[in-house]
Design brief:
The chain is α+β, with helices and mostly antiparallel strands and 160 residues long. It has a single domain, classed as Aminopeptidase, CATH 3.40.630. The protein is built from 4 helices and 5 strands; from the N terminus they run βααβββαβα. The protein is globular, with a radius of gyration of 16 Å.
Length: 160
Amino acid sequence: MEATTAAEKGVFAIRPIRPADIGHVIALDKQVTGLAKPEYWEQAFEGYGTGNTHERSFLVAEARERKFSMRFLGFIVGEVRAWEFGSAPCGWVLALSVEPRARLHGVGEALFEAMSAEFKAAGVRKMRTMVARDNRLHLMFFRSEGMMAGPYLQLEKELD
């Protein structure tokens, strides 16, 4: 018998982002990364959050019960991309963040599963993301969701 998740119990909900959420996204990202990027997130909202489709989605998690001391719990952004570097269409998780005090309550997993459902509805059966090698939190999370190294290597060069 599978354990019932907090999302299934109605403790929190996953839904498409609304204009009123963008300030929460900006604040959470600044809290987690230490960098303020309001213009970036406003552009992300315009590109992924207006008219959500299965191919481009910006989803948020919000608390429904007082179990959490905050209402906004996290977000995920994803998009179906096709044929870059010869890759068949697949879903890409572009960003995922969970309020630190809400971690270990299934919020990240619920966001990930909701994005997986969006990608499946778009007709793709594979998803990818990129994670910094030294970001143990994200590496452990994505691996716990069944993700592993894929067939491509990222290469880079410093430009003078």
